[in-house]
Amino acid sequence: MSTTVKVFIVLNLLLALAFMFVEMTLYATRENWKRRWNEDTKELAEQLKLSAQKIADESNQHVRAEVQIVTLQTQVSDLQVKNHEKDNDKSEKDKEIQSLKLTISKNDEEIKALREQNQTLSNTLELTRQSNNEKTHIAQVARAVAFQLNVKLAEVEDDYNNATTALSQREETLAKLEKENNQHKAQLSILKERYAKVYNEIADEHQSSSFLQAVVAAVRPNPQGQQDLVMLTIGKGDKIEEGVEFIIFRGNQYIVKVRAEKVLNDMVACRVIPESWNSNHLQIQQGDLAQNRLF
Predict the structure, then answer these.
(1) Cys-Cys crosslink for 192: which of 88, 129, 199, 275, Cβ 3.0 to 4.6 Å?
(2) Helix/strand/coil for 229
(3) Any idea which of 247-251, 264-268, 290-294 has the lowest mean pLDDT?
(4) Residue 225, by phi and psi: left (phi above 0), alpha (psi -120 to 50) or beta?
(5) Model confidence over 104-145: pLDDT tens digits?
(6) Is the pTM of this model over 0.85?
(7) Which positions ≥6 away from 239 have C-beta within 8 Å?
(8) Are 188 and 295 contacting, i.e. CB atoms less than 8 angstroms apart?
(9) Who contacts 247 (Cβ-Cβ below 8 Å, separation ≥6)?
(10) Domains of the chain
(11) 3-state SS assignment for residue 207
(12) Residue 214 and residue 218: Cα distance in Å, rounded?
């Protein structure tokens, strides 16, 4: 066998091997692309199906949302109408309340006027009762005097003796009053020395034209526990006027000043003047003396 034939055989073998390699490579490559195409096509179909389902769901939700929006808008409109109706009802109720308040105010004024009228009638009735009692008493005394007149004529001498005794008692009373007057002067001197401001106020001649004296009958505190209302044993028969100021003292100790607010038949209600309290923290007690001035 010649060299040329050998070379030709080797070349054929190499070409056959190369062709086989190329064919095998093409087959393998073609098989991989087909498999990938099938897988990609299947995956893409699934994704398209999911996308279509999601689009359908989103579309359904969008439609539902639009329906819900329309429903909510309808409800909002209904609520606005109801709110407007409520506002109108509230305005009417406010007008009714204002009218009722005016009616209540008028009723309160009428009740107050009726109470004042009732109080006036009560006072008038009380005065009438007292006047009737006094007249009845006078009539009884007059009858008793008329009945015992003859007896009394025989007892003139005894009456004279009694009158003498009464005169002696009055002289003793006068001496006692002079003694009390001296005590008052001493108290005034002490007051002038210790409380010059109070002395200047009570020494004013224009403050009161007549001398008034009373005793503390009762003391009432205010809700804060401070002494506020004072009842004095003096009344209308003593010609006292509202607004008169009294000095309350115990012995030679000044306590406080009070102002008359309500004058009754046998009592006067006074209100404590807060800024006039003494500096010794003394409190008002039942039985303390009260005067509009000390001389």
Answers:
(1) 199
(2) strand
(3) 290-294
(4) left
(5) 888 888 888 888 888 888 888 888 888 888 888 887 887 877
(6) no
(7) 210
(8) yes
(9) 198, 202, 254, 257, 290, 291, 292, 293, 294
(10) 176-291 (2.40.30.230)
(11) coil
(12) 12
